[in-house]
Amino acid sequence: MLILFRNIIILFSIQIGGAMADKNTQIATFAGGCFWCIEAEFEKVDGIISAISGYTGGEQENPTYKQVSGGDTGHIESVQITFNSHKISYEDLLEIYWKNIDPEDDKGQFCDKGFQYSSAIFYHNDSQYKSAKSSKEALQEKLGISVKTIIQPIKIFYQAENYHQDYHKKNPIRYKFYRNGCGRDKRLKEIWKDFSS
């Protein structure tokens, strides 16, 4: 019931363009493989109010982790971020996002393969769409690659099960083992080795 109520609130926020009651409070949604890792990176950032792991992009209602990870729901593991736009801009979030994914991979991310682990930017309004598109084009020019990240409008975001939330804090040893074993940090260093910013 709590998850259903939260999804109604999220859907309402989408309908009013991603803005919450406070004009400085905005929502952004990103996918970059395992949602544990994306959530962990954004939670470090000043101006982030919350980062919630979940699923979006598909048609199936109230999907479970087992269903999404099986690849049959059309959903992608994602993180929905509530942020204070007075402290951090959407464009800043995009910069953080790019530094934490492999933009060349169209088969998934790092050791997680399948559409459900795709990199994607789910925009909440026209302004976010324009910023995401411009940022993607700039990244392609900067790195000299074809960026495979999907840019599409947000659908209903379903919050993942409680044990997935703040996984890096609840299970730090398992999280580090997974992250290292998946080769995420090694690959990110390869991508960004020639760029200091």
Task: Provide an overview of this structure.
40% of the residues lie in helices and 21% in strands. It is α+β, with helices and mostly antiparallel strands. It has one domain (2-192): Peptide methionine sulphoxide reductase MsrA (Peptide Methionine Sulfoxide Reductase, Chain A). The strands form 2 sheets. The protein has a 6-stranded mixed β-sheet, sandwiched between helices. The protein has a two-stranded antiparallel sheet with strand order 4-5. Strand 4 (108-109) and strand 5 form a beta hairpin.
Topology of this protein?
Elements: H1 2-15, E1 25-32, H2 35-43, E2 48-56, H3 65-69, E3 76-84, H4 90-98, E4 108-109, E5 112-113, E6 119-123, H5 126-143, E7 150-153, E8 158-159, H6 167-170, H7 172-182, H8 184-192
Parallel strand pairs: 6-7
Antiparallel strand pairs: 1-3, 1-6, 2-3, 2-8, 4-5
Helix pairs in contact: 4-5
